[in-house]
Amino acid sequence: MGAGVVYALIGGLVVAAYLSRSTRKKQSLPYPPGPKPLPLVGNVLDIPLKQLWLGATEWAKRYGEIVHLNVFGVSLVFLNSADVAFDLMEKRGAIYSDKPKLVMCGELCGCENMVAFNGYGDQMRRYRRLMQKALGTGAIKQYEPLLEIESHPFLRRLIAKPANYVDHIRRYAGTLTLGVVYGHQVTSDNDPHFRMAEDCVGILANEIASGGGIWPVDVFPSLQYLPNWFPGAGFKAKAVVWKKKMEDWVDEPFQAIKEKMKTGAAPSCFCSVLLEDSKTTDHQLEFDVKWTANSMYAASLDTTITVMSHFIHAMVNNPDVVAKAQKEIDAIVGNGRLPNFKDRANLPYVECVWTETLRWAVPVPLGLPHRLMEDDVYKDMFLGKGSLIFANIWAMLRDEKLYPNPEQFNPERYQVPVDEVTEKKRDPRHYVFGFGRRQCPGKHLIESSGWLLMAAMLATLDFKKAVDEHGNVIEPDVTFDNSVFRTPSVFKCDIRPRSEQALKVIGGEL
Ligand code: HEM
């Protein structure tokens, strides 16, 4: 998803928020501080075109832990410290957990039922309960065998075509969630469910949430009632096509598992377990399971690609870290098998590498914006109904006081002895998955799948900078074009098996 997409998305959000903004009565409390707005357009020119989180962090340095901007009369509020984010998004979660309503994306393209776009209310609470069942700490253990099985083919594909590492991570994440959610086994890159997901994630990111600008129908909702043939109503035809694609994407894998259930051939998975529990045909439950299943699947792809790409990037740049982690794995696991979950507690340095990966990567640096449902007052500052609230996770995880030299990838920072409070505070898991009632429901899954994949790679692979045909080292060149996910662009690197023995363990050939 390019910067245009994201700014279109923000544009859309702003418009949606505008339509439901506070009718602020003249009152004495000021907004939180922020850059001075221009008349009418507000701070629109202050918004950087790329990596909004860097701009937001510059404002944080200048204006403090809570910053207010106004774009065409709509408030954007950045919460730059964990304390403020906890105070508002957690403690006042009852009014800070809504999502902006988008006409094009939500209503016309049918995405309003996806978890991440769904407003705060009964439906969202039902979704969250289902996801808690499927992805809560208690549930994750049952997926461990699947995670362990999938590591081998991932490693084989990686050593066969290291330059395509992103495709391999995508296939791994897709296989895993299709298995966990729909009990579907992916056997090739051409698997129809997998291909359909690729297509639809692309449409969602690059078309529906894009358009190079704001969808006019978001500004003037009455445009949705124009007849299809009317000049300028082309968006309606597009929406019809995309909505159908989205619905097929939500429906097809769900119908497939239902068919298997009829013949008794359904493996145990999120959908089958929940539907079986309900004994009778419960249309509400079916609807909820279907949309929740799709949302978990959709959300796992970009996030997993992002965090694992950062891990590879960090390993390529930090051979000392790789060597130290490999020494620990060799001593505890030996070289006859891959690490597994039973080894985890005995691999403290590897744990630090994973913790540092989460911090260094910051896969969703500004979280996903929430919409404030009521006017609110915080530390004598006014926050208006309809404001878009961003948790500046990037600023929290680059806080120099908590993480000295924060740009450096340094797993040892977690081994420096500190008091109990600081120990808890410096764990990036408290911030990286967002705050409050919309916090990431996939955090336990990635905590297991990401750790295992990382440990398997460290056990068997060497990571180096690539070299060109003249023997010159190519420095990995990474850019960030996507403003929701901090996904690094694909970079050149040299990934190969550590040894003949490692190759045997992976079960591959050179
Ligand atoms: C390192 C990997 C991941 C990171 C850093 C991450 C981070 C986040 C963040 C910051 C949010 C926004 C929370 C908020 O609105 O305050 C979020 C939402 C969400 N995540 Fe994740 N995520 C990751 C992986 C996953 C995975 C693997 C899944 C699915 C299995 C998943 C499913 C979701 C869903 C469904 C939402 C929307 C929740 C809602 O709006 O109620 N995430 N994630």
Note down, in words, how this protein is organized.
Keywords: Heme, Iron, Metal-binding, Monooxygenase, Oxidoreductase. Belongs to the cytochrome P450 family. This is Cytochrome P450. Strand 7 (461-467) and strand 8 form a beta hairpin. The chain has 20 helices and nine strands. The strands form three sheets. The protein has a four-stranded mixed sheet. The protein is 51% helix and 7% strand. It has a single domain (3-506), classed as Cytochrome P450 (Cytochrome p450, Orthogonal Bundle), CATH 1.10.630. With 510 residues, the chain is an alpha+beta fold. The chain binds protoporphyrin IX containing FE (HEM). Protoporphyrin IX containing FE binds at residues 115-116, 135, 177, 295-296, 299-300, 303-304, 307, 363-364, 367-368, 432-435, 438-442, 445-446.
- Count of separate DSSP helical elements: 20
- Order of strands in the sheet with most strands: 1-2-6-3
Rg (C-alpha, Å):
23 Å
Q: Give me the CATH architecture, please.
A: Orthogonal Bundle
Helix share, percent: 40-55%
Biggest sheet: strands, sense, closure? 4 strands, mixed
Secondary-structure class: alpha+beta
Shape: globular
Report the CATH superfamily. Answer: Cytochrome P450
Task: Write down the CATH topology.
Answer: Cytochrome p450
Order of helices and strands: HHEEHHHHHHHHHHHHHEEEEHHHHEEEH
GO molecular function: heme binding; iron ion binding; monooxygenase activity; oxidoreductase activity, acting on paired donors, with incorporation or reduction of molecular oxygen
InterPro entries: Cyt_P450 (IPR001128), Cyt_P450_CS (IPR017972), Cyt_P450_E_grp-I (IPR002401), Cyt_P450_sf (IPR036396), Cytochrome_P450_fung (IPR050364)
Family: Belongs to the cytochrome P450 family.
Keywords: Heme, Iron, Metal-binding, Monooxygenase, Oxidoreductase
